[in-house]
Amino acid sequence: MKKEKKGKILKFLEKKINNTSLSNNQKKNFIFTADIIINLIVIVALVLFIRTFLISPFQVFGVSMCNTFNYHNERCIDSFGDYIIINKSAYLELPGYTVGKPERGDVIVFHPPQNPNQFYIKRIIGLPEETIKLIDGDVYLINEEHPTGIKLEEPYLSNENRGKTFALDEISEFDIPSGKYLVLGDNRTKSSDSRSCFKDSFGAPGCDNAEITPYLSINNIEGKAAIVLWPNPRIIYSHDYQEIK
Question: Which of 14, 27, 173, 194 would bridge 214 by S-S if both were Cys, CB 3.0 to 4.6 A apart?
Answer without folding.
Answer: 194
